[in-house]
Each structure stands twice: as C-alpha cells, then as structure tokens.
Design brief:
Elements (H helix, E strand, L loop, with lengths): L6 H13 L1 H11 L1
Length: about 30
C-alpha cells in the first residue's frame, strides 16, 4: 500500500480498482 495511507483504506481502494477503475480514481481523490 501507499505510505501514509491507512491499510484498510488502501485495501478498499485496491478492491475498487479490481471492480471498476473509475471508482478507484474517485477513491484516490478522496484520500489525496
């Protein structure tokens, strides 16, 4: 996972990336 990011959120974003990359991009923006 990325440094400085909670592991739970990192795993959540990874799951979104697998399902739908568009959702993953939104998740990255929220955590940025």
């Amino acid at each position: 996972g990325a440094v400085g990011r909670p592991q739970k959120l990192d795993n959540y974003c990874a799951s979104l990336e697998i399902k739908r990359r568009a959702n993953y991009k939104q998740c990255e923006k929220l955590l940025a």
